[in-house]
Write a structure and sequence with these properties.
The protein is α/β, with parallel strands linked by helices. The relative contact order is 0.15.
Amino acid sequence: MPGRLLITGLGGTLAPHLAQAATAAGWQVLGWDRNRIPVDDEVAVAAHLQASRPDAIAHLALGAVSWGAMLAGHAARQSLPFLFTSTAMVFHHEPDGPHGPGDERTAQDEYGRYKIEAEDAIRAACPAARIARIGWQIHEVSEGNNMLATLDGWQREQGRIAASSAWVPACSFMPDTAVALLQLLQDDDGAGQTVHLDSNAEEGMSFDRLVAALARRFDRQHWRIEVNEDYRHDQRLADPRPGRMPGLSQRLDQKP
């Protein structure tokens, strides 16, 4: 199956890991230069897609909902595999989780509502699209929206890390998410599915325990962890097909 894989968001946090996994699997990775191809110009988007001739599309970038719909529409017309990454943030903390793929999306914040709108636009444009909801990503090096980098920032800026024992976050390590995304894109039975990719779905580690485990795993003895119960939410992303993701403990138990 490997051919030319268009990945949007290569300047972001997770997409480079997907590109690495795809390259290792034999794909030729294509990016998207927004300075050269404006995402709000339907003619330019269509022309670029025709010129680049991708064999599959993975849409990880933030951007106008209409851009995602254009990419998905092209995939549908050309019968190409299409993958979109959504988020656990489509679910509000009331009602509580774990949240299943078919549960009502209850987001009240701007980001969660944006992702709901994007999911709907993509599904309308390409019924066979693969939509993967993911949680907070973890990596020891990556910056951006990365849990470890955020925790380092909290400690540096606030002198402490406030960690709720009443929050069970959806989260995974980026390399594991990238492998699962690529597998979903390549599997024929992934077409038309909305799936949940969460390494904490089975183990249910609370945020305070996770922060302590990350401190041990990545030599952050200087972190001052203050446990509270300020945020209550079982945010886990449950999926009817377990085994898509390894458990968090498989990464946390490894030595650096």
